[in-house]
Design a protein that fits this description.
Residues 230-557 form the Glycoside hydrolase family 31 TIM barrel domain. This protein is an alpha+beta fold. It has a 9-stranded antiparallel sheet with strand order 5-6-7-8-9-10-17-16-12, with no helix packed on it. It has an 8-stranded antiparallel sheet with strand order 1-2-3-4-18-15-14-11. It has an 8-stranded parallel beta barrel with strand order 19-20-21-25-28-30-31-32, surrounded by 5 helices.
Length: 791
C-alpha cells in the first residue's frame, strides 16, 4: 500500500491508500487510533470501548515527498508514504514503535499488523493467558474457551483482552487491537526482528498509547476501556464455594467458619441450587430460599448464586416462554433458534447483542435478589456448549443487532460474556438501586472490568497452577482487570494426583489471602475447606485470612486507586520498577498494592526461597523487621506457616482490628502501620463501602504525613475532603524500628505514657513503647489539628 493523498481532520488525518483508506486520529496528545478500511466503510468501535468523545489535542501536520508527520507535545506519528507505514516517536525524537517492512493491511480478509522489535523488548498484558509473565517468544491466541483444567501450555482460555504493553529501553507503550474475532499474536516467536498480530476477520483497528511509564499506559488504556467501579467491601473479604453444596451445606459451612473464628464474608451456591439447572429458579436441593436468607443473615454471611446463559428448552418454563415469544434467542443460519446442549440439556441462548434482551435479562435477576442474593456469578459464558464446535456455538450462528443487521458468532463470540456481564450489572441497578453490584465472570473481553470481577476459571489442584496464578493475575491487572483471583486450592481433579495436599493448600491459602479476589472454590469430588487438612493448615488459614481482614483499609484504598487510575491491585514488580531489568522476567513475586511485596513459596517441599529486592528502595522483612538494601537477591527461610512479605521502606499501611466479617465492628481506630526512614505519606479514602453514595460526593479523604526531622519525628494530617460521617475517632501511629521518645506532644498538649498497649487502647491519646520489638505506638485523636511531635 502507498499513500495517494491525505486530508487533515480536526483530530488527525485521512489517508487515501488506493483501494483502502486509513484514519489516524489523535484522541489525546499521547494516544492515537488507527483504522484501515475499505473505502466507504465506517470506523469500528467495539463494546469494549467506554469513551468515544475525546475532543482533539493540539497537533501539527507537515508533509514532504516521502512522509506525513503529525506532532503533539508528547508524540510524533511519522507516516511513510510508500510503502505505507507508521512510526511513533517520543517528544525527544526516540523511536517508540515502528511498522515492519511487511506493514499492515488485509490478507484474504484478515487484518494484520507487523511491527519491528529487537532482542531487548519485552511484552506484558494480553489479559488472561497461561505461561509466564513476559510474553516475548509466545504465540498467543484469543478465543474465549471453556478450558477445563488448562495447563501452562493451553493456548485458548476463558477471556479475550487483545491489549499488551511493550517495554523497550526502559520505556513503555501500549497497543490495543480492538477486534472481536479470533485473534493471534506472534510476539517475536517467529523472529527476533519483528512481531505481528492478526484476526480471522473484521476491521483493522488499533489504539497506540505512549507511556513512557507502564502506569501511564494502564491509566490511559483504562480511560479508553473503562476503569473498575468501587466494589462493595464485603466482596473483598474471604469467600467459600464448592460445586456440590446443598442448602444445608451452605449453612453448615458458614457456621463452621464462625465457630472456628476464621473470617469470611460470602458463601456461593453453584448450579445445584437451580431446578434442573433452569436459570432464575430454585430447586429441591435448595428447598427453602427464604430460610436460607434468614440463616445467612443470622450468621452475617452474604451469599452469591451462579448464573448460566443457557435457557432450558421447556414449553412450561417461563423464561423460555418469554424469550421465545419476544424472539430473544441466538439463531441458526436458517433463522431458527440455535439449540445447544449444556447443564439443563437442550438450551437456547439470549442474544445479548440487543438492548431489549439485555434489559429483559437484567430484570430477571429479581427472582434471585428477592431471596437475599448479594452477588451474581456468571459462568459458562464463553459461551460453552457441550460437544459444540470448539466446545461452543457454530461460527455461523446469527445475532440480530439493534439496527436490524445480522452478525455471525465468529464476530460476537468473544463479546458474548461482556454483553451478558453488562446486563447482569444493570440487573443490580434495576433491582437493587444504590447498592454496589458484585458480578463475577469467567469469560470477558476488553472493558469487562467496568461490570465484573474475573476469576481464572477451572484451574487444577497442583503446583503448576499455584505458580501460574501469579503471572496470570499480574497480566490481567496490567490489562485493566484489577479485580481478579483464582480458585484457591484448585478447582478441578482431572487425575487422582490432582488433589490438594495439606502442604499445597497451605501455600495456596497464603497466596490467596493476598490476591484481589479471594475465594476457595472446588469440585464436588474432594474436600477443601480450610479445616479439611488438619489443625496446622487450619491455623495457617486463620492466620493469613485474618491478616487480610486487618489489611482491609489498605486493600480498599488500593481498589480506590484502581478506580481512579486503573492501577492494578496485584502488580508485577515491573509495574513499579520498570527501570530495574531484574524485574522484567520475575513472575513469582508481586506487589500487593503500593507497599507490600509478596514472595510466596510455590514449589513442593521448599522451606526457603530466593527473593529479589528491587533496586532504588529499601525493604523491611514484615515478620522480622530486618532491613535490606534494594538491588540484591537474598534467601528467605520460610517454613510451612511463613509467607515471605516485604514492606517498601517509607510506607504507611492503614489497617484495623480483625473482624470475622466486614461490618462486624465499626472502624473507630485506624492503625497507621509506618515504616519510616525519611518521609512517608498516605492519602486515605473512606466511604460507606456498600452504596453508590460515594458517586455523589459522600466520602472523606485524609492525607497523612510522617517525617523524620533531625532528632524528632512529626506527624500531621490534612482532611482534604469531609463529606461522609466517619466512625473513626482516633489513629494509632505504629512506628517500626523506633526509639523510646522523651516526649510526645501536639502544640501544648503532652501525650502521656501508657504502661501497655492494652492501656493505650483505652485512652483517647498517649503513647506506648514496646522495647523488645522496637515499636512505638502513638494514639492520636482524629480531630487533632496540630502537628504531633515525637522527640
Amino acid at each position: 500500500m502507498a499513500v495517494q493523498s491525505f486530508r487533515q481532520l480536526d483530530n488527525g488525518v485521512k489517508l487515501d491508500l488506493g483501494v483502502e483508506e486509513a484514519y489516524i486520529r489523535l484522541l489525546t496528545s499521547d494516544m492515537a487510533k488507527v483504522s484501515i478500511l475499505n473505502k466507504g466503510e465506517e470506523e469500528f468501535v467495539s463494546p469494549g470501548i467506554a469513551k468515544t468523545d475525546w475532543g482533539a489535542p493540539k497537533f501539527k501536520v507537515k508533509e514532504d515527498d516521502k512522509r506525513i508527520v503529525i506532532t503533539t507535545d508528547s508524540l510524533t506519528v511519522d507516516i511513510n508514504k510508500s510503502p505505507f507505514g507508521i512510526k511513533y516517536l517520543d517528544k525527544s525524537g526516540n523511536v517508540i514503535n515502528e511498522d515492519d517492512i511487511k506493514g499492515s493491511g488485509y490478507e484474504d480478509g484478515k487484518p494484520y499488523v507487523f511491527k519491528k522489535t529487537d532482542k531487548t523488548e519485552n511484552f506484558y498484558g494480553f489479559g488472561e493467558q497461561t505461561g509466564g509473565l513476559n510474553k516475548r517468544g509466545y504465540d498467543i491466541g484469543m478465543w474465549n474457551t471453556d478450558a477445563y483444567s488448562y495447563t501452562k501450555d493451553t493456548k485458548y482460555v476463558y477471556a479475550t483482552i487483545p491489549f499488551f504493553i511493550g517495554l523497550k529501553d526502559q520505556k513503555a507503550y501500549g497497543l490495543f487491537f480492538d477486534n472481536t474475532y479470533r485473534s493471534h499474536f506472534n510476539m517475536a516467536k517467529e523472529s527476533d526482528d519483528y512481531y505481528y498480530y492478526y484476526a480471522d476477520g473484521g476491521k483493522l483497528t488499533y489504539y497506540f498509547i505512549n507511556g513512557p511509564e507502564i502506569k501511564d499506559v494502564v491509566d490511559r488504556y483504562t480511560d479508553l476501556t473503562g476503569k473498575i467501579n468501587l466494589p462493595p467491601e464485603w466482596s473483598l473479604g474471604f469467600q467459600q464455594s464448592k460445586w456440590g453444596y446443598w442448602q444445608d451445606d451452605l449453612v453448615r459451612v458458614a457456621k463452621t467458619f464462625r465457630d472456628k473464628q476464621i473470617p469470611a464474608d460470602a458463601m456461593y451456591a453453584d448450579i445445584d441450587y437451580m431446578n434442573d439447572y433452569r436459570v432464575f429458579t430454585w430447586g429441591p436441593k435448595y428447598p427453602d430460599p427464604d430460610k436460607l436468607k434468614a440463616d445467612m443473615d443470622n450468621l452475617n454471611f452474604r451469599y452469591v448464586t451462579i448464573n448460566d446463559p443457557g435457557v432450558k428448552v421447556d414449553e412450561s418454563f417461563d423464561t423460555y416462554q418469554e424469550g421465545t415469544k419476544n424472539n430473544f434467542w441466538v439463531k441458526n443460519a436458517d433463522g431458527s433458534p440455535y439449540v445447544g446442549y449444556v447443564w439443563p440439556g437442550n438450551s437456547v441462548f439470549p442474544n445479548f447483542l440487543k438492548t431489549d434482551v439485555r434489559d429483559w435479562w437484567a430484570k430477571k435477576h429479581k427472582a434471585l435478589f428477592d431471596k437475599g442474593v448479594s452477588g451474581i456469578w456468571n459462568d459458562m459464558n464463553e459461551p460453552a456448549v457441550f460437544g459444540g464446535p470448539g466446545w461452543s456455538m457454530p461460527l455461523d450462528t446469527v445475532y440480530e443487532a439493534d439496527d436490524g443487521s445480522k452478525k455471525q458468532n465468529k464476530e460476537i463470540h468473544n463479546i458474548f460474556a461482556h454483553l451478558e456481564n453488562e446486563a447482569t450489572y444493570e440487573g443490580f441497578k434495576v433491582n437493587k438501586p444504590n447498592i454496589r453490584p458484585f458480578v463475577l465472570t469467567r469469560a470477558a473481553y476488553a472493558g469487562t472490568q467496568r461490570y465484573a470481577a474475573i476469576w481464572t476459571g477451572d484451574n487444577t489442584s497442583n503446583w503448576d497452577h499455584l505458580r501460574m496464578t501469579i503471572p496470570m493475575n499480574s497480566n490481567l491487572g496490567l490489562s485493566g482487570a484489577a479485580f481478579v483471583g483464582n480458585d484457591i486450592g484448585g478447582f478441578a481433579k482431572p487425575t487422582s494426583q490432582d488433589v490438594p495436599t495439606p502442604e499445597l493448600f497451605a501455600r495456596w491459602i497464603e497466596v490467596g489471602a493476598f490476591v484481589p479476589f479471594s475465594r476457595d472454590h472446588y469440585s464436588w469430588d474432594k474436600e477443601q475447606e480450610p479445616w479439611a487438612f488438619g489443625k496446622e493448615v487450619e491455623d495457617i488459614s486463620r492466620k493469613y485470612i485474618s491478616l487480610r481482614y486487618e489489611l482491609l483499609p489498605y486493600l480498599y484504598n488500593q481498589f480506590k486507586r484502581a478506580q481512579e487510575s486503573g492501577q492494578p491491585v496485584q502488580q508485577p514488580l515491573v509495574y513499579h520498577f520498570q527501570y530495574d531489568s531484574n524485574t522484567y522476567n520475575n513472575d513469582n513475586q508481586y506487589m500487593f498494592g503500593d507497599s507490600l511485596m509478596i514472595a510466596p513459596v510455590v514449589n513442593q517441599g521448599a522451606t526457603s526461597r530466593s527473593v529479589y529486592l528491587p533496586a532504588g528502595v529499601k525493604w523491611v522483612d514484615y515478620w522480622t523487621g530486618e532491613e535490606f538494601e534494594g538491588g540484591q537477591t537474598i534467601t528467605k527461610q520460610a517454613d510451612l506457616g511463613t509467607l515471605p512479605i516485604y514492606v517498601k521502606q517509607d510506607s504507611i499501611i492503614p489497617r484495623r482490628e480483625v473482624q470475622q466479617y466486614t461490618g462486624e465492628k465499626k472502624l473507630t481506630n485506624l492503625i497507621l502501620d509506618t515504616y519510616l526512614a525519611g518521609q512517608a505519606s498516605y492519602s486515605f479514602y473512606e466511604d460507606d463501602a456498600n452504596t453508590e453514595d460515594y458517586t455523589r460526593g459522600e466520602f472523606n479523604v485524609t492525607d497523612f504525613r510522617v517525617e523524620q526531622k533531625g532528632n524528632h519525628i512529626e506527624f500531621e494530617q490534612d482532611k482534604k475532603t469531609e463529606s461522609y460521617e466517619s466512625d473513626i475517632q482516633s489513629y494509632t501511629l505504629k512506628l517500626h524500628d523506633a526509639k523510646e521518645p522523651n516526649k510526645v506532644q501536639a502544640a501544648e498538649n503532652k501525650y502521656g505514657k501508657a504502661s501497655s498497649l492494652d492501656e493505650l487502647n483505652q485512652q483517647a491519646s498517649g503513647y506506648y513503647f514496646d522495647a523488645s520489638a522496637k515499636v512505638l505506638y502513638v494514639k492520636i485523636p482524629a480531630n487533632e489539628s496540630h502537628k504531633v511531635k515525637i522527640d
